[in-house]
Amino acid sequence: MEDTKMFYSDDYPTEFDPNFYVQLYEDPEPNPMFGDLMSFTLTNYHKTFDSGTIKGKTLLDIGTGPTIHNIISAAPHCDNIFLSDFCQSNRDILKQWHEGSLEFSFDKIFDFVLRQEGKSKSDISERVASVRDKIRGILHCDIRDENLFSTNFLPQVDIITSSLCLEAVATDQASYERYARNMVGMLKPGGHLVMFGCVGGTFYSLGPKRFISFGMSRDELKSTWKKVGIEIISWDECVRPQQEYYDADAAFSMVGRKVLDF
Questions:
Q1: What is the pLDDT of residues 17-36, one digit of tens each?
Q2: Quick check: helix, strand or coil at residue 242?
């Protein structure tokens, strides 16, 4: 790789290319850069929400990025959805999709989810409209701040979803725990956290650029989430053979319930 400089969380507004990222994730089928990560994520979201036990009035997705795959399975099980991200460029893409002006549609992702629900392509437009109708806001969010939404007031919510967020921001175990505590602080006692992340690893690449990804062991991750008040309900992993685009050992899916408030 020609450019081996490592980029950190503060570099995302200028160095992260949301259009390139979206093109990678537009299709849930395995690709050379991220393998079957998207299908693993979508399948686990489906299993989590299809159970019918994870539901509530308001869902908050933290670190949404420029894609909406986190909320497709969840949307039928909540009334209000808030999306959030640190980068203005990512929020702009989300707003374009919400308004219907984005140049591509995420239809392949919707189709993948709906097929798992036993539905067909003819149901895509109805689900798209339903998801858009439930989005109440697309907010600036900084997980490093104890008050994640310092420019907006947002009360605690029933469900939080998040994917590949904390490892992109944390630089050590102490900061990961601190940011995890900030995230859990937005969750009502008894509320549910549906989380995707990496086991191990130090980086991931997006095109020619390499971004830090702070990975911990399975035991360290579980211990950290328990420490910040989450009772782990389920844990699943997808082993990811190391290659030049990332060095994580596995991707994990975690469903938890908030049992402690701080």
A1: 998 888 876 777 766 555 68
A2: coil
Q: Is 190 helix (H, G, I), strand (E, B) or coil?
A: strand
Cα 60 from Cα 64, distance rounded (Å): 9
Q: 172: number of CA atoms within 13 Å, CB side?
A: 1
Cβ contacts of 219 within 8 Å, gap of 6 or more? none
Q: Is 89 helix (H, G, I), strand (E, B) or coil?
A: helix
Chain-centroid distance of CA 116 in Å reads 20
Of 42, 36, 94, the closest CA to residue 65 belongs to 94
Closest CA relative to residue 190, chosen from 226, 239, 221, 157: 157
In this structure, what are the phi and psi dihedrals at residue 133, rounded to the nearest 5 degrees? -65, -25
Residues 6+ away with beta carbon under 8 Å from 120: 114
From CA 67, how far away is CA 83, in angstroms rounded?
10
Read off the amino acid at residue 232: I
For residue range 131-175, list pLDDT tens digits in order: 999 999 999 999 999 999 876 789 999 999 999 999 999 999 999
Question: Which residue type occupies 3?
Answer: D
Task: Check: CB of residue 259 under 8 Å from CB of residue 229.
Answer: yes
Q: What is 52-93 written as a DSSP string? A: S-S-EEEEEEES-TT--GGGTTTGGGEEEEEEEES-HHHHHH
Six token digits for residue 63: 């670190």
Number of H helices, E strands in the chain: 9, 10
> What is the maximum alpha-carbon separation in the chain?
48
Instruction: Give this prediction's pTM.
Output: 0.94
